[in-house]
Amino acid sequence: MDERIRKMTYKEWTDEGTRLFGKDKKNWKFICPNCGNIQDYHDFEKLNVKNIQDVVFFSCIGRWIDDCKGEIGNHKSPCDYTNGGLFDFSKVRVLKDGKEISAFEFAAEVELDDDLTSQKEPEHNPEMCIPQGGVAA
Questions:
Q1: Residues forming a β-bridge with 14
Q2: Where are the domains of the chain?
Q3: How confident is the model at residue 71 (pLDDT cuts 50, 70, 90)?
Q4: pTM of the model
Q5: Which pLDDT value is given to residue 126?
Q6: DSSP H or E stretch at residue 95
Q7: Which of 2, 74, 79, 107 has the fewest beta carbons under 10 Å from its own?
Q8: Nearest to 122 by CA among 86, 78, 56
């Protein structure tokens, strides 16, 4: 197991989210480990995604945008990566009800690689997929 993976209880995870973003989980921001997209509940809400609370920290919003389908490592943001696929790149594991759940990192804690973006919180339009560099796909 990769030593960079952080394991925490559900209480520790929710305490950390509350400290960073406040009690309203709809305002918590997560970063996709594949493309660097920063997303929150409201982004998914605009696309009428069901069960948002179960996917916002687990799957990149590009899974619900047809033009965002792509391969792992393509650095389009957003992308269609999910922790539930063949590869799990997440560095956070949350223990809840005896199960370990992979989670995206909170966006406020991640220093993005220069090759993904130079901004801490990139602006994105959840209506279309934008490759890094700002040219529409």
A1: none
A2: 6-112+127-131
A3: low
A4: 0.74
A5: 47
A6: strand 92-96
A7: 2
A8: 78
Q: What is the CA radius of gyration of the chain?
A: 14
Q: Distance (Å, rounded) from C-alpha 128 to C-alpha 49? A: 15
26 vs 89, higher pLDDT: 26
In angstroms, the CA 61 to CA 41 distance is 10
**Burial 56-69, CB ≥16 within 10 A → b, else e:** bbbbbbbbbbeebe
User: Looking at residue 104, what DSSP letter applies?
Assistant: P
> Given the structure tokens 């309203």, which residue do they identify?
24
Kindly report the average pLDDT of the chain as a whole number.
Answer: 78
Closest by alpha carbon to 101, among 87, 85, 84, 86?
84
Type of residue numbered 84: G
Calculate what percentage of the chain has a pLDDT beyond 70. 71
pLDDT (tens digit, 9 = 90+) per residue, 92-111?
999 999 999 999 999 986 65
